[in-house]
Amino acid sequence: MRVIVRKRVVVPRKFALAVRIGSVVLALLAVAVIFHAYGVNPFDVYRSIFFNAFGTKVGLTETIVRMMPLLLVSAGLALVFKTGFWNIGAEGQLLAGAMAAYVVARTFPDAPPAVLIPSMFLVGFAAGAAWGIPPAVLKAKLNVNDVISTLMLYYVIYWIFQHLIHGPWKAREKVGQLTYGGFAHTEIISKNAWLPVIGETRIHWPTLILSVLAAVGVYVFLNYTAAGYEMKVVGDNPEAARAAGISYLRTVTLAMIISGGLAGLAGVGEFAGIQHRFTPEFLSGYGFTGIITAWLGGVNPIGLLIANFLFGGLLVG
User: Which fold has domain 64-311?
Assistant: First the structure.
């Protein structure tokens, strides 16, 4: 039996942080060059974006509204990326969670909010997790490319969603209209299923609390639990993990359950806290944007909060 010893490459934290900050700066400079080429002052554009996102009370609250689903998605992605598994389909897991919440709200419209809202979050987490499991199993058992499988499952659920809102879930005729803004839509859910908000804002506080807990929880889980340690070992050195008896299937499946579940919670928040109905344009791309913020923030609650807050502002601005 040959034993091969390789020196582990350790990237200093300061260097990793510098790479992330440098990437953002280079991206801003590249966009500035494009603006300048079209005769637009990039400083005016960036000033406008900053003011719209952070310079007013409305802008600041809307930035937080955008931050919440991004934080949930990116926390889960940061965790699963640590295993070396690339979950590119968080948008589909988010949609699965939202659809599950709609089924609960539609089935039990008269249930008290104290029962209905937690039920939607629980079912939404389960649906997002369930949609994340197949790619993990396919990777572990058949070595199916994780990027392709997670992305393909997004398209599967997207077209299921489109079929439902144009068919079985389509709103019944009211005042001679079947469409909302020219598109098919579902009925607005019972107000018992609406998430409570802070004051006159659109910040639905249950999702805000869950998103912050997710960012902190992922950090604690990875750094202070045996399962989290196994995930890091699998990501750093799959061969060593296998030799140590760590199950790749169990580890990656658990990571995808958490990642998909958190994306599902983001879907519940977006549906029950903001839109309250489905239209063909329900999705806002949080599942894909979360990939960027997960890389920028890493498995660090402060880093994730900063990255998602800034990207939330970028979406608002």
Answer: ABC transporter involved in vitamin B12 uptake, BtuC (1.10.3470)
